[in-house]
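Lecture notes, unit on binding sites. The following record was shown on slide 14. It pairs a sequence with glycine.
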Amino acid sequence: MRRSSTSPTTPVRRVSGAPPRPDVAVVGGGVIGLVIAWRAAQRGLATTVVDPEPGGGAARVAAGMLAPVTELHYGEEALLALNLASAARYPDFAAELEEASGQEIGYRSCGTLAVALDSDDRAHLRELHALQSRCGLDSQWLTGRECRRLEPMLSPSVRGGLRVDGDHQADPRRLATALLLACERAGVAFRRATAVRLTATAGRANGVVLDDGTGVEAGQTVLATGSWASRLEGVPRELLPPVRPVKGQVLRLRMPSASGPGGDFLSRTVRAIVRGGQIYLVPRANGELVIGATSEELGWDTTVTAGGVYELLRDAHELAPGVTELPLTETAAGLRPASPDNAPLLGPTALTGLHLATGHYRNGVLLTPVTGDAMGELLAGGELPEQVRPFTPGRFGGGIAGPAGVLSVSE
Ligand code: GLY
């Protein structure tokens, strides 16, 4: 057995004018890091966010579906409970955040239609419907004709679908902007630099060193850097979260501005299984249509490829042929932080003072409210709420806390 070697090897410079040692350093200024910082500051904790570009991250690419029912997968029943809990908080969360920031977040309770194109796709959707029913979820089977009555732009080849009125959407870019403003108004400090190393003394995490040679010392440190959380130097190897990047490419188009959200094009989120492949079309109230997403295990690559764009447009065209008439305004690729069980890692690690909030994978925007509440409670009160305990990092093993909080790790 040996002690972990997490103490800094180079002196850390302080930044003049920087706030004195904060209670909490949140490393990562995406929507997860920001919501945690906001909630911590609301609870009276002096909080600093470390990120070169706060408000960035995977949310710049994400479509923002709040879809616990249509994104249900076999074996993810525990995650379903957390997803449903967070979805239920969204209306109040959106209202509170909009009030605190003065910025709308594009929350739309528009519902979702999940459709199938060929008979294999329909069989797949029938299985999803059966799973939803077993889980007690609200979902209604529709014929192809009924689907087209709801969404007339859908192709005549749609064979059937599921109407899920409880799956909604928010605009992740607006959400990030609103969280940034709410943090600023709540007194959160920002250090616009990259954290390169965790520091610890006497078996306790006490902040991070930044790439400009300065540091942030804090009583508690939260690692909320998405896929990059698996890479921070100074974190004992055993405690590095097992998250990996899963690339997603998305397209943004502009819908005609007829009356009402989405104009005449789509009135609600439409997901589809198109010859075995998954696609979604998310119409925003501001006329934007987001089409996503590929799912690619290619490490840290974020190239937008001709093949990715082609696949999305091909399937979207098969689903709603009019899509190819719309202006294409943006292509983008981002990295989902995926964990071995597709669920997030939330809570303390075996290194006292170091907490994780990562691994949100397909559900980062959906899980933003519950993550903020749970981590705020942990940071201010020392306990995670019951609902979040199945998602602590310890479920994947790692080091154990020894006497006096000194971390011991096996050779
Ligand atoms: N939740 C949508 C996606 O991960 O693509």
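Take-home: The two ends are 6 Å apart (CA to CA).
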